Amino acid sequence: MREAGIDLFLLNRGNAYDGLACLFGIRNSFGFRPLVEDRGFPEDASCRLRGEFAGYGGPHHVHGTTWLTWTELDTTDWHETDASGTRTRASAAGTDTGWGRVRSVMRTLSEVHGAENVRLVAWFH
After folding, report:
1. Nearest 10 degrees: CA dihedral of 114, 40, 49, 97?
2. Residue 46 Rama label (left phi>0; alpha psi -120 to 50; beta)
3. pTM listed for this prediction
4. What is the pLDDT of residues 11-51, one digit of tens each?
5. How many CB atoms lie within 10 A of CB 64?
6. Phi, psi (5° rounding) for residue 87?
C-alpha cells in the first residue's frame, strides 16, 4: 500500500525554474534533458495523494504530471549540462540548491522503505 509522505511545498522556498526544467522539463528554456517528463499520475498512488490531485482539478486542469523515484534521482549524472553546456544538473537541482532538502528527505525515506519505494510525484498549474 502506498502512503503520501510529505508535501513538497513544506520544503520549497520559491520557484527554482532551472530545477523544474532539469528534473521535469517544466519551463525548460535552459535546454536540460529532463530526468522525467509527462509520465502522468501514478496508477498506484495513495488515496491521500489522489485526493490532493483531484483538488487541483486532476488531469484536465494541471500539466506536466510526472513522478521520479529515489533510485532514478540517486543515479543521476549530476555533471550533465544544459543545452548551452554552462549549467550542470548539480547547479540546478543538486544538494546545494533548494532541491537539496527534497533529496535529503527522499534519501532518508529510502533508507527506511527502500529506494524503489520512494518517489516524488509532481504536477503544475
Report:
1. 60
2. beta
3. 0.87
4. 766 668 899 999 999 999 999 999 999 999 999 999 999 99
5. 17
6. -110, 130
